[in-house]
Design a protein that fits this description.
Elements: H1 12-15, H2 31-44, H3 48-52, E1 61-63, E2 69-73, H4 75-93, H5 97-100, H6 109-136, H7 145-161, H8 168-177, E3 183-186, H9 195-209, H10 212-217, E4 223-225, H11 232-235, E5 246-250, H12 273-278
Antiparallel strand pairs: 1-2, 3-5, 4-5
Helix pairs in contact: 6-7
Pfam family, one: Retrotran_gag_2
Length: about 290
């Protein structure tokens, strides 16, 4: 007579007091937090298979060499049942009375686990998505451009993981709304302003704003100037350097210093005023009213 399954030894000595780890009770609104508390306990004790279905219950009876059932109960079955009942008691002990009242008595811990997951995971997921969308719409405030973009990227990553990725167009709209003092557009319909390009523009703008030379030269009533992003060759084959011009402009503002005539300049992404003045970039003039060299 042989056994079709390996004997399991209950590890109740290791898990008898585990309920002391469950400080947070599932109340129906905190499923992710509850799950983050329970999962490490089950995983660290090699018991996660009971609830995720990867460690199913062994057959009740041992089999003989021909695969036929005998009249002998498999010890592995008894061990599995003992551990599964322990896990059920942990789960039930980590639920608030209101949630516990909705748990149907079950033959195994996995059934309870799946029931809780189906009831509360989607609710928590939707609430989490709404929370992240709300955070995405928070105003930039007085934080730096790079810090703001890092925050936006982090939220976008979390939304993607949550199964609700935000579109590139919506990202551009949200970010641009936080820079009302600048008009950021692309002059080519075939090459619209993407979030990747917008990031590069704003980071370039941040560098320019941190330059004392830039600050001293940006004192006229109204200035329109390009901020150079990543060269088109690095952004993809669909960006044409002659047509994908991005303008960054700030509205008129009072100046205590001299008034410089309104200036407008245009350069392809990755270009430079020096290149335009040298004639190597074609019909892109040197900005009038900007900072002079030297």
């Amino acid at each position: 007579m042989s056994s079709s399954s390996t004997s399991l030894v209950p590890n109740t000595a290791l898990i008898s007091n585990v309920t002391s780890f469950f400080k947070i009770k599932l109340d129906g609104t905190n499923y992710p937090l509850w799950l983050a508390q329970v999962m490490p306990v089950l995983t660290s004790r090699n018991l996660i298979g009971y609830v995720d279905g990867t460690k199913p219950c062994p057959a009740y009876l041992l089999t003989d060499g021909r695969g036929r059932n005998t009249l002998t109960v498999d010890p592995a079955f008894d061990a599995w049942i003992q551990e599964d009942r322990m896990i059920q008691s942990w789960i039930n002990g980590s639920l608030t009375p209101s949630v516990l009242s909705m748990v149907v008595p079950s033959a195994c811990s996995r059934t309870i686990w799946v029931s809780l997951e189906q009831r509360y995971a989607s609710q928590s997921q939707n609430a989490r998505i709404l929370q992240l969308c709300g955070e995405l719409l928070h105003k930039r405030g007085d934080i730096s451009i790079s810090a703001y973009l890092n925050r936006i990227n982090s939220i976008a990553d979390k939304l993607r993981v949550a199964g609700s990725p935000i579109s590139d167009h919506d990202l551009v709209t949200v970010v641009k709304s936080n820079f009302p003092g600048y008009k950021i557009t692309a002059n080519s319909i075939s090459n619209p302003l993407t979030y990747k390009i917008l990031q590069n523009i704003l980071l370039s703008l941040e560098k320019e704003l941190s330059s004392e030379h830039y600050v001293s030269s940006m004192s006229p009533e109204s200035v329109t100037t390009p901020v150079y992003a990543t060269p088109p060759s690095e952004l993809g084959p669909n960006l044409d350097s002659a047509t994908s011009v991005v303008y960054v402009s700030n509205p008129p503002r009072a100046s205590r210093g001299r008034v410089v005539p309104h200036a407008r300049s245009s350069y392809p992404l990755g270009g430079s005023p020096a290149a335009g003045s040298a004639g190597s970039r074609g019909p892109f003039p040197t900005p009038r009213g900007g900072a002079s060299s030297g």
